[in-house]
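Translate structure to sequence.
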């Protein structure tokens, strides 16, 4: 039998960072994405590389959201905070935030506390 897929409401989930990151220029977040996830490659190839990670810079919206992904706040609460912080510049807020979160989750950059 296959696994049964459980439908979850994205707005009720609590995103938690699952990736190393650092603060870049002007306080923006830079995600440190490993070039290799395979255990053998990490052990034998990565030590020979000068830069073992891809550096992915986020914009102001991504930076704000990433810093909120602490596993304590729901997606709904984060979206409401971003609406207040950015106003009409962030419209449509729920669509933008959900697209961002889905991409991060698909790549395992975030996980969810329930």
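Result:
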């Amino acid at each position: 039998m296959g696994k049964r897929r459980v439908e979850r409401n994205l707005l009720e989930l609590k995103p938690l960072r699952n990736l190393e990151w650092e603060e870049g220029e002007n306080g923006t977040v830079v995600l440190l994405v490993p070039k290799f996830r395979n255990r053998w490659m990490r052990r034998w190839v990565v030590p020979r590389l000068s830069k073992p990670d891809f550096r992915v810079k986020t914009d102001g919206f991504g930076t704000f959201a990433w810093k909120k992904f602490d596993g304590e706040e729901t997606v709904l609460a984060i979206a409401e905070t971003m609406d207040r912080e950015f106003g009409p510049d962030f419209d449509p807020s729920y669509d933008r935030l959900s697209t961002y979160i889905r991409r991060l989750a698909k790549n395992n950059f975030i996980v969810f506390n329930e």
